[in-house]
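## retry 2 of 3
previous attempt timed out at serialization; input unchanged, resubmitting
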Amino acid sequence: CSSDLSKNGFAYAGEDDGSHIWVVDVKKQKLVTTIPLSGVPEFVAYDSKTNRIYQNIKTKDTVAVINPETNKVEYEWSTLPATGPHGLAVNTKTGRLFIAGHNGKLVELDIKTGKFISQVEIAPGTDQISVDDSNGIIYCASKGFISAVKETESGLTLLGDTPTMPGAHTLS
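## retry succeeded, writing output
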């Protein structure tokens, strides 16, 4: 999955079940470089405020923080208790990073420090998540449910699980 274009005009794409991120110059339609990762990537997101790329590493229960100015991994932050991290979303308004583990845990991290803030139980098997930053609601799509979670000053609160069509696990 590729992120929005970074400030340098490059697109970053995770090598599904591989070990790299591809950095692509969109204007030249050319591969610029690859960024080696410590494990298998799952989802990548870009935050324009911090000018950082965030890449879930599903085999290590971490999120890699990549500086697009150097195209290097600066940090790896733990996603525990969320294991097998899949869904990843950024709320630029609150400076929070949300990571959904395949095990049914959603964690909230400070986007600047990687510090763990809170967690909440969601439907297991979540694949994709999305943040409605105007309402502070995180939607987590798993096979058969969408979990809605409210971001509050004191942490995350599950609003509920809504059944979906069997097998559906994506958001738009």
